[in-house]
Amino acid sequence: MIIDKNGNISIITQEKFTVVELVKKLEALYPKFKNDNLIITLTSLESIPTTEIVEFLKISKIHRGDKYSFVIVTDKANLDEIPEELVVVPTQQEAFDIVEMEEMERDLGF
Questions:
Q1: What is the side-by-side order of every strand in the sheet holding 37-41?
Q2: Cα 60 from Cα 74, distance rounded (Å)
Q3: How far apart are CA 104 and CA 57, in angstroms?
Q4: Residue 20 CA to its chain's centroid (Å)
Q5: Over 9-76, what HEC string results?
Q6: Is the pLDDT of residue 73 over 90?
Q7: 25-29, 74-78, 96-100: the lowest-pLDDT one
Q8: How far is the C-alpha of 9 from the C-alpha of 93, rounded, in Å?
Q9: Within 10 Å of residue 72's Cβ, how many Cβ atoms?
Q10: 37-41/9-13 β-pairing
């Protein structure tokens, strides 16, 4: 797991863990990231079943409930099967765009 910081955005890149292991590690380290927008990059995985993407649902709901963005980056998942509660985009640039847009919405009180 590689952790990069860009302003108030923490970018967590999965390298060796399975998605389930990554979610467990993320939950354990969550206090370190709870005040940042999170981008989870899973582009190194060959394929990601929807059942594994759903593992992020709990932590995503908590994080988004605290008014921070939680975006997953992968082009290997079937986006039509992803629950609406999760934000999944195919590129990191789109993830940054989502975070920027959500921050504007929060600033405007939406």
A1: 2-6, 9-13, 37-41, 70-73, 87-89
A2: 16
A3: 23
A4: 14
A5: EEEEECCCCCHHHHHHHHHHHHHHHCCCEEEEECCCCCCCCHHHHHHHHHHHHHHHHCCCCEEEECCC
A6: yes
A7: 74-78
A8: 13
A9: 22
A10: parallel
